[in-house]
Amino acid sequence: MLRPIGMAACLVLTVSGCSRLAGSPVNPMNWFNKDREAPVATAPQATQPLVPTKRDVVVVDSRDLIAQVMSAEIAQTPSGAILRATGVAPTQGYFNAELVFENIQNGTATYAFRVERPARFEIEGTIASRTITAATVLSADDLAGIRSVIVKGAGNTVTTRR
């Protein structure tokens, strides 16, 4: 007697879990209902893109130039080269380092070594703790007209040849 009641209770609990799947064919309430709702086609609404297509964007890089550029080198790769520069920040905590392309003149590309100033961390520390390295990838097309690269810092510039 307990076995059929237990089986019935399991079946009722299992089927009651299907009630959340209102439109599902697993739901027994939908097995014999021949009236099905069809979605109504609505006219598409005019949507505005999140970013307007026509606008003049001026990006201002508020990061500082690194205090001193120590070295710069170009390492050749099969698809181009990697420009790597090492510099020393005035205090510890500088981050978000990047070599930012500025221009090309007479076969010389110029990059600015930019770093972001820490919010409250102003401990000078050792030179090793203030050293930052940044790199960027140069494709073969980028290198086509370049004979040398200048990396600018706040205190100096370093030139490297290909």
Give the helices and strands, then pairings.
Layout: H1 2-16, E1 64-65, E2 68-77, E3 80-88, E4 95-105, E5 108-116, H2 127-130, E6 131-139, E7 148-152, E8 157-161
Parallel strand pairs: 5-7
Antiparallel strand pairs: 1-5, 2-3, 3-6, 4-5, 7-8
Describe the 3D structure.
This protein is mainly beta and 162 residues long. The chain has 2 domains: 1-31; 64-161. The chain has helices at residues 2-16, 127-130, and strands at 64-65, 68-77, 80-88, 95-105, 108-116, 131-139, 148-152, 157-161. Strands 1, 4, 5, 7 and 8 form a 5-stranded mixed beta sheet that branches. A hairpin with a 4-residue loop joins β7 and β8. It starts with a helix and ends with a strand. The relative contact order is 0.18. The mean pLDDT is 83.
Estimated share of beta-strand residues: 35-45%
Output the helix-strand order.
HEEEEEHEEE
Number of strands: 8
Terminus-to-terminus distance: 90 Å
Shape call:
elongated
- Rounded Rg: 32 Å
Largest sheet: 5 strands, mixed
- The tally of structural domains comes to 2
The unreliable regions are none
Helix content: 10-25%
- Summing up helix and strand content along with how strands pair, one would put the structural category as mainly beta
**Can you give the mean pLDDT?**
83
- Tally of alpha and pi helices: 2
